[in-house]
């Protein structure tokens, strides 16, 4: 799937407002039941943990991040976002909400991934070699081999987590959990 530069720029601007619109749709139409909510929230929690792990390694536009989850996938933040969305879609109990989330991920987030990689390719001369070794989205099945091909792992840094304001995603996750609990208990 190819996207024009103009569309990719539109997608980058639209992703946050669309996220709020999806939240409203979800708040109105989600029909959770306990079993699906437990399974979905467990999956969504894994996505939030992946996002947190990634941001604790990411020094945006200063360093080509290859440590932590970036040793396995070039886009752990978007993989985390997709995992959170899948979890909440399962918890919400409506198939069409899952389809809507998938459409937004495909037509809004995927072009942003491509645009960001183009930016990184221009910013960091080593990006092409990194992209050859590390998959764009789904982690490689041979993670030991992949791990041995990347540079030494840098430690997770809370300062980067705060600098990247990832706590906002954690707050959003907590709000989503509260919304589901409210819907389940009413």
β-sheet strand percentage: under 5%
The ordered H/E elements are HHHHHHHH
Point out poorly predicted stretches: none
Query: DSSP helix count?
Result: 8
Instruction: Tell me the structural class.
Output: mainly alpha
Q: What is the number of beta strands? A: 0
State the end-to-end distance. 43 Å
Radius of gyration: 17 Å
CATH architecture group name:
Up-down Bundle
What is the global morphology? globular
Roughly what percent helix?
A: over 70%
| Count of domain modules | 1
Which helices and strands appear, and what pairs or packs with what?
Layout (H helix, E strand, L loop, with lengths): L4 H25 L4 H22 L20 H17 L2 H29 L3 H7 L9 H7 L8 H6 L3 H19 L1
Helix pairs in contact: 1-4, 2-3, 2-8, 3-4
Could you list some keywords that capture this structure?
Four Helix Bundle (Hemerythrin (Met), subunit A); 186 residues; single chain; mainly alpha
Kindly describe this structure.
- It is a single chain.
- With 186 residues, the chain is mainly alpha-helical.
- The chain has one domain: Four Helix Bundle (Hemerythrin (Met), subunit A) (Up-down Bundle).
- The protein has eight helices and no strands.
- It has helices spanning 5-29, 34-55, 76-92, 95-123, 127-133, 143-149, 158-163, 167-185.
- The protein is globular and about 55 Å long.
- The model has no long low-confidence stretch (mean pLDDT 90).
């Amino acid at each position: 799937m190819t996207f024009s530069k103009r569309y990719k720029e539109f997608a980058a601007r639209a992703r946050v407002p669309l996220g709020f619109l999806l939240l409203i749709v979800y708040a109105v139409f989600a029909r959770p039941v306990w079993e699906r909510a437990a399974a979905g929230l467990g999956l969504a929690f894994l996505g939030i943990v992946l996002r947190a792990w990634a941001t604790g390694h990411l020094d945006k536009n200063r360093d080509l991040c290859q440590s932590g989850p970036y040793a396995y996938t070039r886009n752990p933040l978007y993989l985390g976002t997709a995992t959170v969305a899948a979890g909440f879609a399962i918890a919400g109990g409506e198939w069409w909400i899952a389809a809507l989330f998938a459409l937004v991920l495909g037509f809004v987030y995927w072009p942003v991934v491509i645009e960001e990689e183009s930016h990184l390719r221009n910013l960091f001369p080593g990006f092409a070699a990194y992209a050859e070794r590390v998959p764009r989205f789904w982690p490689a099945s041979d993670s030991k081999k992949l791990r041995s091909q990347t540079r030494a792992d840098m430690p997770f840094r809370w300062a980067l987590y705060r600098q990247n304001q990832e706590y906002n995603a954690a707050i959003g996750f907590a709000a989503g959990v509260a919304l589901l609990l409210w819907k389940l208990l009413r």
